[in-house]
Each structure stands twice: as C-alpha cells, then as structure tokens.
Amino acid sequence: MSDTTEVIETVNKEPKEPLFSAKNRRLLSDPMSDDNPITIQVLGICSALAITVQVKQAFVMTLSVLFVMIGSSVIVSWLRNYIPGRIRIIVQLLIVATLVILVDQILKAYVYDVSKQLSVFVGLIITNCIIMGRLEAFALGNKAWPSFLDAVGNAAGYGWILIAVAVARELFGSGKLWGYQIIPSSFYDFGYADNGLMILPPMALITVGIIIWVQRSINTKLVEEN
C-alpha cells in the first residue's frame, strides 16, 4: 500500500510542461518556415492569389484569419471532449462561421473600403483549408494553450507569405506600398514604368513559386526526392 502511495505522489509531483517549452515554441516557429501552410502544405493558395494586389488588403486578411483561427482553435479545444465524432466537422464549421460573421461585421463597420475590396473572400475564410485542417488535426486532440500557439503560428506563417507577395505585387505593379508612393517620380521621368503584369493573378502564383524556390534552396531538406 505504501509503495502505491509513493508512486501516486511521484506522479503528482512531476513538473508541468512550461508554457514556452521547446515543444511549444516549435508550434510557433515551424509554420513560419519548415512547415509553412502555403509554401509547404500548399493550403490557402486561393486567397494568396486573390487579395495580394495591395499590402493593406493582405494585412487585413491576415488579421482576420488570425482572429478566426485563434478563436476557433481554442473553442474547439475546450469542447473537444464533448463534441460527438460524427458531427465534429459540422460543429467546427459552425464555430468558424460564427467568428467569420463577427469579423465581417467589424470590417464593414470600421474599414468599409477594405471590406468592399476583400468582397467574398472574407466569407470564404469559413472554408479555409488551413483553419479546418488545424482544427481537425490539432485542436481536437490538444489542450487550449498548445492549440492557441498552433493557431498563432499557422496564421502568422500564412500571413507573412500573403504580405510578402502583396509587397512585391504592389511595389512593382503600382510603385506604392499601403497606398503611398514609394518609387520616386524621377524614376518615371527617366523612363521607368510600372509592371502591369504584377497586378494580375498569375503573378501572385509566380511570386509564391519564387518564395518556395528560395525556401528550398536555403533548406535542402524540404526538397522532395524523386
């Protein structure tokens, strides 16, 4: 009996995992590079093509996805032991849709011009593969804190690709960033011209492709073997 008591006390005395342990830090860092949802997992490509003409749009979309992803991941994690397996996808969609409607109303109230430019793409966050994938693969099987970190990491990894593509497209396509003129007018006087091709959807895909190429050139472990 005493041996059993000692075992129980030993288990109870095991230290809890630190909030920012190496494992938890990887939840934040991996999606930024080696497990990026766009360049490695090839998810969320549609929005990367559609709303990266301007940095402002990409930034607002990043914040929207960040809010929805954090909220849905934490809520699903809290409810994971109460959600019947047969209807888990429906419950996840309901949670995500509620948060997306909230985001859409906030955008219409405070940044109506951006909301109008983003159009239907805010609503399409509901079916964003990144969000649904992380809910199904991670939040359903983990506690709230790791799910929160996973959501932040994946949303940030998604967001920096969007913003990087938007910077390239807006700068070379219109000479501006966030609507402000960056390329001096003297350049245009000497014959420089904006590249109209950059504002077309195909250039978003090409820009993402260049980022993927650079990423794999730096980290050769990401290159798939034939």
Describe the structure.
The protein is mostly helical and 226 residues long. The protein has one domain. It has a two-stranded antiparallel sheet with strand order 1-2. Strand 1 and strand 2 form a beta hairpin. The longest helix is centred in the last third of the chain and has 31 residues. The chain is globular.
| Number of individual domains | 1
Would you report the number of β strands? 2
| Strand line-up across the major sheet | 1-2
What's the shape?
globular
The level of helicity is 55-70%
**Helix count from the secondary structure assignment:** 10
Layout of helices and strands:
Elements: H1 2-12, H2 22-29, H3 45-50, H4 55-79, H5 88-110, H6 112-118, H7 129-137, H8 144-174, E1 176-177, E2 180-181, H9 185-189, H10 201-218
Antiparallel strand pairs: 1-2
Helix pairs in contact: 2-8, 4-5, 4-8, 5-6, 5-7, 8-10
Relevant terms:
single chain, 226 residues, mainly alpha, two-stranded antiparallel sheet, 10 helices, globular
Task: Kindly summarize this structure in a few lines.
By secondary structure, the protein is mainly alpha-helical.
